[in-house]
Amino acid sequence: MYVKGVNLGNWLVLEKWMSPGLFDGTTAEDEYYLPTQLPKEIYEERIRMHRSEYITERDFTRIRAMGMDAVRIPVPYFIFGDRAPFVGCVKELDNAFNWAEKYGLKILIDLHTAPDSQNGFDNGGISGVCKWSQEPEEVEFELSVLERLAERYGTREGLWGIEVINEPILEDMWETMHVQERYPAVDPEKAAGSKPNTIEFIRQFYLEAYDRLRKYMPEDKYVVIHDAFRLKAWKDFMREDKYKNVVLDTHMYLMVAEMAGCDQTIEGYVNYVKEHFEADIAEMEEYFPVICGEWCLFNSLAVGHDTKGGQTVLNGQEGMSEEAMSAEEKKAIYRAVAKAQLDAWKKGSGYFYWTYKMLTDTVNTEGWVGWDCWDLGRCVDFGWFPTRE
C-alpha cells in the first residue's frame, strides 16, 4: 500500500483564511460563529452555494490527471444535519463517492471537528475552545457519527478508510502553539475550562472508535488514527491481533519545523526533513503503516520573512505584499522542499497534500504573498510540485 492523495480542505469544513469571502459582513473567525452573525436564509444559501461550486465533478478528473489516487475529505461533526444551526453535508459526500468511483479515486473520510473542539484551532470549528473530551455526551455523539459514516459508506468501493478524529491536541502541542493566544476565544465563558486532551483519553477513544467502525466497515478498509502530534507515542498501541489495517496519520509542516528551530534556508529545510520527518516515519513504519495526512510546500524563506510558524494577517501578523524573490528562485525553493518531503513520505505508506485549492486572492489582498503554495493546483501549474513522483 502506498497512497498519493490530496485534501479537499475548506469544502465541508470551513477555514476562513482559505475562503475569506464566505465570512463577508461578519467578524466571525470560525465556522461556529458564522451562523450567529448572519440571517438564517443568508447563512444557509452561502453554505449551499459554496459547497456546490467549490468542489465539483471536474475537480475529481483534475486530481486524477495530477497523478493522485485518493482524496482525504474533512467532514464536520454535523455532517448528518442533526446539529442546528449548521447545515448537514452528507449529500455532498455521497456525490464525492460517486465521482471518486467513476474516476478511479479512493476516499479517506476524515472526521475533522468535534463539538466544543478537540484542539482549539480555527479548523477544529471553534477557536480557543477545547472541551470536547470532558463532555461524555459529546464524546458519545462523535462515536455515533463515526458509526453512521461506517454504516453508510463502509462497503463502498471508493472508500479507502475513515479517520477517527483530526488533530486531537495533547499538552505539549497546546503549549508549543500557545493555542488560546493564537486562536482567541470569542466568548470567555464558553472557553472556560478548556484544556488539552490526555493521551489516556485519546487512546481509549481510538479503541472504542475502532470497534464502532468495524461493526459496519470490513477489515480491508483502513481505520486511521492521528498521532496527536506525538508520533512515537504509539509503539505499544493496538498490538493485539484483533486490530487490522490500522494506519497512523502524522501531520508534518515546515512551519512547525521552523517553530522547532529549523534554519530558514533550503539546506536547513532539506536537512530537517531528512533528520526528523524521514527518520521518524521510518522508525514508526515498523509498527503501523504511516501516512503524512497533511503537509505542503509552505515555508518562510519563500514568503520572504519569518511567518512565526505560519501565522497569517488573520493572526495579526504583518504579511508580505510584494514578492521577495524572482519566480525562478521561488521555484527552486519549492522544488527542493517538495523533493525532500516526497522522499521522506516514501519511508512510510503515503501522503495527502494540504490542500487541493483555496480561494484566498494572494495577489490583490495585502499580506498574502507566499501563501499560494498551499493550493496544490497552483503548485502543479507553476511546476513547483512534480506530478508523477
TrEMBL record:
Coiled coil: none annotated. Belongs to the glycosyl hydrolase 5 (cellulase A) family. It comes from Mediterraneibacter catenae. Signal peptide: none annotated. This is Exo-1,3-beta-glucanase D. Keywords: Cell membrane, Cell wall biogenesis/degradation, Glycoprotein, Glycosidase, Hydrolase, Membrane, Signal-anchor, Transmembrane, Transmembrane helix. SUPFAM superfamilies: (Trans)glycosidases (SSF51445). GO terms for cellular component: cell surface; extracellular region; plasma membrane. It comes from the Bacteria. It is found in: Cell membrane. Its main location: membrane. Gene3D superfamilies: Glycosidases (3.20.20.80). One of its GO terms (biological process) is cell wall organization. GO terms for molecular function: beta-glucosidase activity. Residues 53-298 form the Glycoside hydrolase family domain. Glucosidase involved in the degradation of cellulosic biomass. Active on lichenan. It is a single-pass type II membrane protein.
